[in-house]
UniProtKB/TrEMBL annotation:
This is Phosphatase PAP2 family protein. The chain crosses the membrane at residues 30-54, 91-109, 116-138, 158-180, 187-210, 216-235. InterPro entries: PAP2/HPO, PAP2/HPO_sf. It comes from Micromonospora reichwaldensis. SUPFAM superfamilies: Acid phosphatase/Vanadium-dependent haloperoxidase. Residues 117-229 form the Phosphatidic acid phosphatase type 2/haloperoxidase domain. Keywords: Membrane, Transmembrane, Transmembrane helix. The lineage of its organism: Bacteria, Bacillati, Actinomycetota, Actinomycetes, Micromonosporales. Residues 1-21, 237-257 are annotated as: Disordered. It comes from the Bacteria. SMART domains: acidPPc (SM00014). The keyword Lyase does not apply.
Length: 257
């Protein structure tokens, strides 16, 4: 071909499937792979725990009984502690958390972060549907104590409070953590951990759930957050309130992060 003739650009080499899965900037790259792997790895201990509960494994039953008896015994002698735990468990119950998630979805939509808004809605909905379904499948009764300090209807495994608190904590981290300053990041982490841990603990402290119910709720919540984040690749969504990058073909066009 003559030097003055038209030139054709060689097509870039196609990367392997493994290379695309582990590429940090590929749309279905490293972070999606890690999120999918995390969802799988968290779902495994949840499944194992469910099998142990269904099989009435005696070491797990003894552990649940010992912890519940100790915490309920303390609560019976400290009415102020019962009121505090009851207040916390009511404020951060599944329904108030869902209302808070709806407010967050509307705020994200108004800010133009529609992908994050969809992810929040999907995550809370999937978790909300899984909890009653799994309760029916496992059919585990709540603790039947001679002197209860609180009561709750329905079945026990997994804890709906713990599950929804873990979902809400995950939403806080995914939505706000990437765009917070260092002090703000510590505040977000603290709020998320307190929300998940204290809500789950309150259910055992009040004697309405076994410890394994709460642990199962936490595990399932983390698995749902990781799975939906992987499916919707929310880390590639634009930050709330930040304009989307340009999509033109010129050299100044952005690519999104």
């Amino acid at each position: 071909m003559s030097p003055s003739g038209p030139r054709t650009l060689a097509a870039p080499p196609r990367s392997s499937w493994r290379g695309r899965r582990l590429h940090p900037d590929h749309a279905r790259g490293l972070r999606l792979t890690l999120a999918a792997a995390a969802a799988f790895l968290v779902a495994v201990p949840f499944t194992l725990l469910a099998v142990l509960v269904l099989g009435d494994w005696s070491p797990l039953r003894r552990l649940d009984t010992t912890v519940t008896d100790a915490l309920v015994g303390y609560a019976a002698d400290h009415p102020a502690w019962v009121r505090l735990m009851t207040l916390w468990t009511d404020v951060f119950a599944p329904m108030p958390l869902r209302v808070g998630a709806l407010v967050l979805v509307l705020w994200l939509v108004r800010r133009g972060a529609r992908q994050l808004a969809v992810w929040v809605a999907v995550t809370m909905t999937v978790g909300g549907l899984l909890s009653p379904l799994l309760k029916l499948l496992v059919g585990r009764p709540r603790p039947d104590l001679p002197d209860p300090v609180a009561e709750a209807p329905g079945l026990a495994f997994p804890s709906g409070h713990a599950l929804n608190a873990a979902l809400a904590a995950g939403v806080l981290l995914v939505v706000f953590l990437p765009y917070a300053r260092p002090a703000g990041r510590r505040a977000v982490w603290t709020a998320a951990l307190l929300l998940a841990l204290v809500t789950g603990f309150s259910r055992v402290a009040l004697g309405v759930h076994w410890t394994s119910d709460v642990l199962a709720g936490w595990l399932l919540g983390v698995a749902v957050v990781a799975a939906t984040a992987a499916a919707l690749t929310v880390w590639r969504a634009d930050p709330p309130g930040r304009p989307a990058p340009p999509t033109g073909r010129g050299p100044a066009a952005g690519t999104g992060s």
